[in-house]
Input
Amino acid sequence: MVDVLGGRRLLTRDGAWVEADAALQNKVVALYFAAGGCASSRDFTPLLRRFHAQLLAQAPRPAPFQVVFVSADGSAREMLDFMRRLHGAWLALPFHDALRHELRTMYHISVIPRLVVVKPSGEVITDKGRKQIREQGLACFQNWVEAANIFQNFSG
Output
């Protein structure tokens, strides 16, 4: 994902900026396309937050996983409100970054919420991350790591 987001700064839910290159290096990245005004997004986000927290608690440091929120909200204020209310400790592409729209096109996002899990190169591992988390829980992560060719010892 560094290939796609490299050179950009990402936002934390607390408003801090982090460099995408450092934050995403050697990680499986889940691009989370969602919006606070979408009932399905509000339903899935707490599940994703728990999945993320449990995974980080069990994974070796640094954790080989990062969520990047790609907002479909109508305004920056709506995006930040959604992040502060329901999101986990993950990152977001800034609302005014034109890459938000490019990613929606690149990954064929027509409905939200959608969780697209990608390799460090940006190549898709699965566009059914939401379904896999609901059905398999933490067990799906090992498949993602293996597909990404990131070698970690994780027993989920």
